[in-house]
Amino acid sequence: MQVQSMHFKARAGERLADQRLQTNLKKLSTKFVTGRASAILELDDFEGTRDAAIERRMRAIENLDVWLATFETEATRRGATVLYAESAEDASKLVVEIAKKHDVKKAIKSKSMVSEEMALNQALEAAGITPIETDLGEYILQINDNEPPSHIIAPVVHKDKEEVSDLFARVHHKPRLTDIAQMTREAREMLRPQFLSADMGITGGNFIIAETGSVAIVTNEGNEGMCTILPPKVHVVVTGIEKVLPTLEDLATVMRLLPRSATGQSISNYFSLLTGPRAAGEQDGPEHMYFVLVDGGRTGLIGGEFQDMLRCIRCGACMNHCPVYQKIGGHSYGWVYPGPMGSVLTPAYVGLEQTLDLPQASTLCGECHVVCPVKIPLPDLLRKLREKQFERALRPRYERFGLRLWAYFAKRPALYHLATRIGVRALRLMGGSKKSISSMPFGSGWTDQREMPAPFGKTFRELYRERRVAK
Amino acid sequence: MRVGLFVTCLIDMMRPEIGFSALKLLETAGCEVVVPAQQTCCGQPGYNSGDRQSARDLAEKFLNEFDGFDYVVVPSGSCGGMIKTHYGDLFADDPALRGRLERLAPRVFELTDFLQSVLKIEQLPAAAQGAFQGSITYHDSCCGLRELGVQAQPRALLAKRPGVALTEMADSRACCGFGGTFAIKYGDISSAIVEEKCAQIHACGTDAVVLGDLGCMLNIEGRLRRSGDHKTRVLHVAQVLAGDC
Q1: ipTM more than 0.90?
Q2: What is the pTM of this model?
Q3: A174 contact B CB<8A
Q4: Which CATH number describes the domain made up of B2-118?
Q5: Which end of chain A is less congested by CB atoms within 10 angstroms, N or C?
Q6: SS3 A217
């Protein structure tokens, strides 16, 4: 996907002004935040499960080459083909080649964020292959002029029912419906012939399991089953190389956390574990099964200060709980992954130069770290990215100057005390009789929508000394 | 018991009276309080903005000024969090400083945590004439809450203040949108977040919102006043506990 993160400020500003979006985003806290809070109570030992999941994820990542090799051996032994792509573009090329090899005209897709990294739909279309999104949210976005998703598990969270009603009526050429069950039924009716006439199914993979060569897929709509078991003679799994788990036992541990952290469900409506293509004597499954495992910048994180990011299980809890995401929505972030995890991943995958705002646009409140099922220290990682920006002089010169100036004074107490004495008096004067500053030079970011309460007019240390003398 | 009071740069400059409230609380509880005169800033602005070197220098300066005390008390969760949870990262490559920090950090406390968990005070100082009485709601500032576990302590202490009644807002844990330089760099996002917090405060209908961090205080007060609320008071927990306002 093309990076738009350099337009973060402008995009965020538009979203803040969009009252309808503001209302729609409230769903995050009412639905996901409350849902997660009650779902995690079902676990006897949530903390223990989290620690176990971290250990299992890190075991895989620290020996990624070994587990990928094991996965490849096992998947191949069961008849699947495992391919690796160094870049997201390469991965798209591989999928297109597979489609051409099997003479595919139409591909049905279940949800995959990695396919967004790959801009897979565009690549397929360019090669004359029609991709059809079958996850309801992704379907809505596709028929709305290929709008990008705004959330990793709830891609249309930014839309309300009325918008979808209008869209369906316009694109489906049918009477406008307002009942959700009826609308869903209509989408199913539109999708059914596509399922039946497609030649290839493309899915993501929540995890791939080394010991069995399987892919684990979590959905709530069952569309993934339609993409892999119905007619398609070819099933292609596209996922990141970091999604490997050594054993099914590991999968069981991580699955206790994923749906609960994501949607507040004990378990998703559907959970598939697919191993190899249809074998002799089996009734269903594709004739051919491929895995396209994408690097796309992931190996660059191994062994480095951002390695912890690789254990992410893509639950979306960090964005659901993020005060910034809750206000600006996912599109502001300008690439595939929004919210705190996206603000770490996007710079890591597409480069810091194009994503200058992302590490900065966080209050570092820490809630993302608190709710992350695998305890990724997201605020620390954002701070590390800020350090890299500072080292490489990527932030505006006045900002660097301001920080250095502050430190210069703060390291020299006598000078600092003089400067603060002058500063607080000046600000006190600016505050006037209402003791409040309504506009500050270089501080309009603060004062555009807030007052700056004026200081008392003397520093604590001045007053402290005066009072000591008086005693 | 010799206690070093780290006033914090924001209290020093913006609200010195909070420093005196903290001083009063500690002295009333029987502490010998020293305010090292050379203190300035804990280094958090630099640390959170990527200027690691400046943050490290200020961390070392803090260590030099404060490691002789039995305890160090900070009337701010974010500065306390900086010292207790982030200085270690800054000294990662310096075993000597790290060793000194490891001896000091367990003795550094956020004010309400210190009063409640270490001093276990039973009695608050007598309230001044005309001191605040009324209904309050409490905002949990992010760093104090998530880095230092400050949540029950201020509430337990506030319960000891006669005439002060706490009503919880819908989500006291939600960030107010301050975030240091974030509030200026992304003023529009920050304002939208604090507006959410102000709506929760208004929904409580209390006379005051009480909290333990200057950043959040200026942010919330600034937004309340700009939106025309000149009535709801914004008070630091130290002021209410000391009976100073």
Answers
A1: yes
A2: 0.97
A3: no
A4: 3.40.50
A5: C
A6: strand
